Amino acid sequence: MSTGHTRDEALRLVNSVLLPGFHGTEPPPWLLGAVDTGLAGVVYFAHNVPDPATAAALSAALHARRGDLIVASDEEGGDVTRLEAATGSSYPGNGALGEVDDTDVTERVARAIGHDLRAAGIDLNLAPDVDVNANPDNPVIGIRSFGADAAHVARHSAAYVTGLQSAGVAACAKHFPGHGDTAVDSHLRVPQLDADLDLLRRRDLLPFAAAIEAGSRCLMTGHIMARPFGDAPASLNAEAARLAREELGFTGAIVTDALDMGAVLADPGFGPACVQAVLGGADLLCLGNPDSAEAAESAYGTARDALLDAVATGELPVRRLAEAGRRARELAQWIGRARATPPPPKEDELPLAVARAALRVRGNVALGPAPYVIDLRQRVNHASGSRAPHLNRLLAEAMPGLTTTGVPAEGPTSARADTALQGAGERPVVVLAREPHRDAAETALLREIVTRRPDAVVVLTGWPHAVDALAANTVVTYGSARVNALAAVERLLGGTPHGG
């Protein structure tokens, strides 16, 4: 090759920055071949790890193939989980932790999550989410944030990093330079962060600085167009990386958000985005979540070939690729040292206690027998990948005779309310909602339902915002995890109040 490197040497350089996903619970041949030629690591999604035992076996097989391979996943707690996607997370997420507002508790919960990841052979947690939830209309951060106050988020971000890494699992603060004050989901298209550098420093960057000070081994750049950095998303932008390195003093590995997301997939396209990301200062490229075995192999091949071609033409300097690979290896070395230290004991009773403490209860929320449940939650959350049915399931298990119904997606408010309430009769009514404030039609429907049934209990799994103006009887859980649902069901069945 014109760079003076053989193709095998170039392939190893390229592989040293790639974190592909793959399909299924066993490593396919193409992945094993990549591992043997210097692949940095892999990223697990829910389909890879349907249960902890499968995750542990898969990780053991991959680490047996090469001991310094990085195994990564998203295990934020709360709404975003991979290891417990089928049942819901055992841990309260950032919204609940921020509401409790005890940094010692946040540290201990993160340590417990790290304990589970260690047992599953997962080395790098793509968490915590340290975004400041400054925009109530944010469609993808919301309850994944510790809150809307930058100093508050910074304290809890540092505590989470400390707790997670004390269990021997590397942390990754995300989504740099801040996804909180946006109104677009980067899974779909590019969000605009309309803040000047002064506002970024005073608000969005504070939690990243705190996470870096706490020793976060990784930082994830988001597909966010931030005004101070020009038109390219931060994940592909050298100015964003320079800010993290030179102003915040970050020396660890920068990993991109998934490069198969809509924000970069259409423009510049998957292959060019991989090249631009490395040129922009990324050290590890998260290739994303494939929906088939063929898609996974194709994504890896496209990324690999795009980088190889860029090296061959001189578009991508070998020194930049080598620098990125060095940082990835330094991360792997930290992980290797961390694996040699046994994790601390796990606090099994802590998560439910935290979920109870986070509950905010208002009015009369005790249910009578066989309630009628109306679920208004129609929007899928792209980060968690589901509508979180855990609350519905637990209510049905606890209350024989319960009925759950949805609502028509469209139509006049009165007609939708008629349909929603048509089977209720005199039974107690429970309304499940997540973010009604983001949708005028959903707000109107919720108001109509509780006007007709003022005794209805509204269970809100997101931030409360204006729910008190809509309903007299409310339970706010600050998250959709199974543990949040357990705490809510306990309260609805007449348990002792733990918040409010």
Automatic annotation (TrEMBL):
Transmembrane segments: none annotated. InterPro entries: GH, Glyco_hydro_3_N, Glyco_hydro_3_N_sf, NagZ_Beta-hexosaminidase. One of its GO terms (biological process) is peptidoglycan turnover. SUPFAM superfamilies: (Trans)glycosidases. One of its GO terms (molecular function) is hydrolase activity, hydrolyzing O-glycosyl compounds. Keywords: Glycosidase, Hydrolase. Pfam families: Glyco_hydro_3. Residues 37-327 form the Glycoside hydrolase family 3 N-terminal domain. The keyword Hydrolase applies. The keyword Hydrolase applies. Belongs to the glycosyl hydrolase 3 family. This is Glycoside hydrolase family 3 N-terminal domain-containing protein. It comes from Streptomyces niveus. The lineage of its organism: Bacteria, Bacillati, Actinomycetota, Actinomycetes, Kitasatosporales.
